[in-house]
Design a protein that fits this description.
Length: 167
């Protein structure tokens, strides 16, 4: 695989991660749905998943970079599977609003599945993809701090703890 093709594929994967993080953040802000602790763990795993492609763009493709992303995907798969199993019983409405009939954690389960082949993106978009994921991750970290404060996150959050206290 040529360096430019590797950069293109890694940039495209970063755009996919950015889309997932942006959708989750939009649901939080626009629909006023605070993420539960399992949702936060899934967001973290998507952010960690992006580290491999970022390293590949910066230093070139290496097996260790892909291994890091695979470990993040395996952990994210486990977290999202756990949440799907929590809400799989008949009559359970699930947690949060559904998108195209599925909740965020179900989409996360699909997103963490292995054997996804991305299409080719132009190499010029690689830097934008990197900074987009970094920015969305920073926004998610800030909103998580506002939601949970400096303690454990609530199981079913309804307010931003840090803003409630006026800190």
């Amino acid at each position: 695989m040529t360096r430019s093709l590797a950069v293109s594929l890694n940039a495209l994967s970063l755009y996919a991660v950015a889309l997932v993080l942006a959708a989750a953040f939009a649901a939080q802000l626009l629909l006023h749905e605070l993420p539960c602790p399992l949702c936060l763990l899934q967001r973290i795993q998507f952010a960690v998943l992006a580290v491999g492609p970022i390293l590949n763009i910066r230093f070139g493709p290496r097996p260790s970079h892909y291994a890091l992303s695979l470990l993040a995907a395996a952990a994210g798969f486990a977290f999202s599977t756990r949440q799907v199993l929590l809400h799989i019983t008949p009559g359970d409405a699930g947690f949060g609003t559904a998108l195209f009939g599925y909740h965020y954690y179900t989409w996360a389960l699909v997103g963490f599945e292995p054997d996804r082949e991305p299409a080719v993106a132009p190499p010029a978009y690689a830097a934008v993809a990197v900074w987009l994921v970094i920015g969305l991750t920073a926004l998610n970290v800030a909103s998580t701090l506002a939601e949970c404060g400096f303690g454990a996150c609530a199981e079913n959050p309804v307010v931003y703890e840090l803003l409630k206290r006026g800190v």
